[in-house]
Design brief:
8-stranded mixed sheet, 18 strands, 3-stranded antiparallel sheet, RNA-binding, alpha+beta, about 425 residues, Helix Hairpins, BirA Bifunctional Protein, domain 2
RNA sequence: GGAGAGAUGGCAGAGCGGUUUAAUGCGGCGGUCUUGAAAACCGUUGUGGGCUUGUACCCCACCGGGGGUUCGAAUCCCUCUCUCUCCGCCA
């Protein structure tokens, strides 16, 4: 959420900035609501003040045994007036709030302006796509005899799920372990375990609600949702909290399954495990002071890149343009890994700085020193990495002419020294 | 699943319809004293919002969440959530 003060100033300037993100600000409606809010709030508070004073007077008069009928009469009409005023104010504020909750974050000044992913800016490339002396297969063709089983998953659940068996399942697990270990041992993240179901407040805090309910799996009976990313439970750890400056930065690494309905992606990536309803992800989350959040974004992105480098997977780093930025993000780097089966770079990580956007929704704050006013934190997160897609990248990049798949050396210790997946 | 108890400021803990917009203690911060520190003493110490060019002042809201009764609610009523104790069940 943006600072509500912004909506009381130059709405046209604000609207212009939001237009870069493809959002149309309802200027007239906002300015009308804001005008009415101001007069209604002032009036309501005046009435409340009146009521408080008269009620106190009644209390005192009663205690000293005086006649209170006169004061009681003077207060008679106040009640109804106050009630109406309070109800109207509440209505206005609810409306304002419901608009504010659907306004996306503003892009950072360093973000390229553009409409779609074609306008994303390539920041750097790492590694060279391997030249195969045969036609590389995609992961589905490669793995259907090696333990990736979409048909069984379709039977027991439905489309966009997978069953993994034997060494394929172990390789998948090894990736998770490798990523968690690297980030916690070398990058200073604290490993954390969280619930895979969250309440609506948490989703509101990180920005998935109220706008993107259709993308979620929900459990209406209990009023819970399956998490679409660990970002939701982990970031909400600091909801309604005030932390001390000395505790910052807070850095968490967390492995969870992620559940996404993929509504609106019906035709996309139907083959294989690029786009599943359930997938594993290792997520990096940071809470930092506002002055160093952009430095933290560079660091966090580098932490995610390190995984790809250690696995020797070629990738490129893209800076998303304004129109391609997510709802809550001020700036995002996507990491795209090379997939020989598709002859394309495909997203495998997304690293974002949300500035105070999520923190304001969550009331996640820090205090510089005893007695100082609390300030909003900046929150960041990034995949480090999406595990399913990393598995795909390994299968496709490490395939051999004999159809077997070499195991990256950094993973072998996690697989009892296994060198080849047959 | 059954029975009961509870949720108050950073923490502990009183208040159970007005005279307190929450007593007291601990902790934090500032000061006095001291070569310095401790102790003692004095003062101060929640969050959000409104008004305001900004500050100060002033005002409003907040005693787990929501709703109600009342001129007036931390206090009474309803409801939800969470915590604890006992019983049952259980990985």
């Amino acid at each position: 959420m943006l600072d509500s003060q912004l909506f009381r100033q130059d709405l046209n300037a604000l609207a212009e900035k939001l237009a870069a993100k493809g959002f149309q600000l309802p200027i007239e409606r906002l300015s009308n609501l804001e005008t009415e809010r101001k007069s209604c709030q002032t009036k309501t508070q005046q009435l409340q003040s009146d009521r408080n004073n008269r009620s106190k007077a009644i209390g005192k008069a009663k205690a000293s045994g005086q006649d209170i009928s006169e004061i009681m009469a003077s207060v008679a009409d106040l009640g109804e007036q106050l009630k109406q005023s309070e109800e109207r104010l509440e209505e206005i504020q609810r409306e304002l709030q419901s608009i504010l909750l659907t306004v996306p974050n503003l892009p950072h000044e360093s973000v390229p302006i553009g409409k779609s992913e074609e306008n994303n800016r390539e920041e750097r490339r790492w590694g060279t796509p391997k030249q195969f002396d045969f036609t590389p297969k995609d992961h589905v063709d490669l793995a259907n005899q090696k333990g990736l089983d979409f048909e069984t998953a379709a039977k027991i659940t439905g489309a966009r799920f997978v069953v993994m068996k034997g060494n394929m399942a172990k390789l998948h697990r090894a990736l998770i372990q490798f990523m968690l270990d690297l980030h916690s041992k070398e990058h200073g993240y604290t490993e954390i375990y969280v619930p895979y179901m969250v309440n609506a407040e948490s989703l509101l805090g990180t920005g998935q609600l109220p706008k993107f309910e259709a993308d979620l799996f929900s459990i209406p009976q209990q009023g819970l949702y399956l998490i679409p990313t660990a970002e939701v439970p982990v970031t909400n750890i600091l909801r309604d909290e005030i932390v001390n400056l000395e505790e910052l930065p807070l850095k968490f690494v967390c492995h969870t399954p992620c559940f996404r309905s993929e509504a609106g992606a019906y035709g996309k990536d139907t083959r294989g495990m690029i786009r599943q309803h359930q997938f594993e992800k290792v997520e990096l989350v940071q809470f930092v002071t506002p002055d160093r959040s952009y430095q933290a974004l560079e660091e966090l992105t580098h932490h995610a890149e390190t995984i790809l480098q250690r696995l020797d997977l070629p990738y490129r780093t893209m800076s998303l343009c304004s129109g391609d930025l997510g709802f809550s993000a001020a700036k995002t780097y996507d990491l795209e890994v090379w997939l020989p089966g598709q002859q394309k770079y495909r997203e495998i990580s997304s690293c974002s700085n949300f500035e105070a956007f999520q923190a304001r929704r969550m009331k996640a704050r820090f205090r510089k020193a005893q007695g100082e006013k609390p300030e909003l934190l900046h929150t960041l997160n990034g995949s480090g990495l999406a595990v399913g897609r990393t598995l795909v990248a390994i299968l496709e990049n490490y395939q051999q002419s004999d159809g077997k798949i070499a195991i990256p050396s950094v993973l072998q210790p996690y697989l009892n020294g296994l060198q080849v997946l047959e």
